[in-house]
């Protein structure tokens, strides 16, 4: 089952404020905590296009420290962060190797071609985890009439592969091999803290060998907005200009960075709860007739299951769930994605399972 097409549930006006909705569409749906809102209200701000927003500067410094990098840059979204990194690490007409379910290929509006002028070289990989052996085979031969490979982009965790995690030796080997071959390596680490939690390692350790790293504050970490790009000082100096070109100079965005700082400092420690809830959901789903999932493969906060055996497609299935106040997205004709996060607790997962069971049987 290859999950690529996303068919998100959109709520009707009268459905939007339901208090009891269990929203498992994504970890992007979380609301800022009271502590985040207080910090946002009190944030010291300045014009960040002049580099004068003290709260953004603090966030960028902390992110760089935590990842053991020279510098970082606050950007409005993961898509912009990936776009900036890809622009700097490639030249028009080059190829980028990535896994076939990669977010940069499927959900970023073709920006790798549109903005950077590159073409993707897609590689299918079991559970979404590439290996150096597979990457190596796809590097274009050095012939003048072949578009040259310049970049390998990995996604950790791999979202549409069900939040799968790169074992560190596998991503290290890809980075070492790519560097030896004269390529650069980018990490779409939207959920890198989930990967680090699953591996029991620090984000600095598991990302050290990448040329550039992007991670999101607004996914499992619960911030309302924001991502960071990390790399060398020279890379981040270039990133400032590309961010501005994309319209990402955000002025007094310290009000956002204030929430981001709380997300970065306090939220990684609780991700294991989301992982346990996802596994609990997966175990429950595996017992429901018509639903297929290998629960032992659920490592983080995302699971993708196949509901084909119920006789329904994912559009109808997600509509049925929504009628019972449970939200989950279809990500393929019969593939459904469930994502756990800080705004859904174990009791919410139990209720979601009861609703899924009822909808699968109807
Ligand atoms: N992912 C979203 C959707 O776009 C699919 C989600 O609900 O999971 N990299 C990865 C691996 C992502 O999962 C996402 C968002 C992004 C990049 C982009 O981040 P944003 O939405 O901030 O541009």
Commentary on this structure:
With 362 residues, this protein is an alpha/beta fold. Helices cover 40% and strands 15% of the residues. The protein is built from 14 helices and twelve strands. The strands form three sheets. The chain has a seven-stranded mixed sheet, sandwiched between helices. It has a three-stranded antiparallel sheet with strand order 9-12-11, with helices on one face. β11 (329-330) and β12 form a beta hairpin. The radius of gyration is 20 Å and the shape is globular.
Query: What's the β-strand tally?
Result: 12
Radius of gyration over C-alpha positions, nearest whole angstrom: 20 Å
List the total number of helices: 14
The general outline is globular
**Largest sheet properties:** 7 strands, mixed
Strand content: 5-15%
Low-confidence regions = none
Compounds present?
ligand TLP
